[in-house]
Amino acid sequence: MPAPRTKRTVSTLAALMLAIPLAGCVSIQPQEESPAPTASAVPTATASIQGTATPLPKDPTSTEGSLGTVPKETAGDSFQAGFDKILEHAQKKKCSQDTDISEDGQILLLVGDCKDVAITGTGNMIVANNARSVAISGAGNIVAIKSLRQVEVSGVGNVVAWRSGDTHVTDSGQSNSLGRNALDGVELAF
């Protein structure tokens, strides 16, 4: 026996009421492409990079490469701002001929005659006015030294910034940021 007409009408209306809200729910999946390398991709082989970093002085009135005009008063100096922020929270540590920092999570101001500084710890924030050389085998350290002659980094994810002009750089680690503008965009949280 066929279904009564009202029962078919109700069934049709119910199906339409469900279909209408779901009509806009469409998912389109793009064709799979080969994945593009990312900034955090780990290279299969690492080579030692050696050279002398001599960046040109930055013109504080220039807006080259920016998306808009930055007033000179607010342009700022990332090195000095980062140095000062770390300095606010730093504990003093006296430098000697050879200074080793093997602790983790230290916030330090190195004072005195810093010749050779070795950082094997992780997650340190270190500032100093000068050092002859810095060697980092630790990870995630942030170092700002006003005058630095040589830096060697074999660790991962370190940031080393300096003011001096001719600094000899060796980076055999991964994902390190080294240079006069290395503190650009680095958020310092305490």
TrEMBL record:
Residues 1-23 form the signal peptide. Pfam families: DUF3060 (PF11259). Keywords: Signal. Residues 34-48 have a biased composition (Low complexity). Residues 31-74 are annotated as: Disordered. This is DUF3060 domain-containing protein. The lineage of its organism: Bacteria, Bacillati, Actinomycetota, Actinomycetes, Micrococcales.
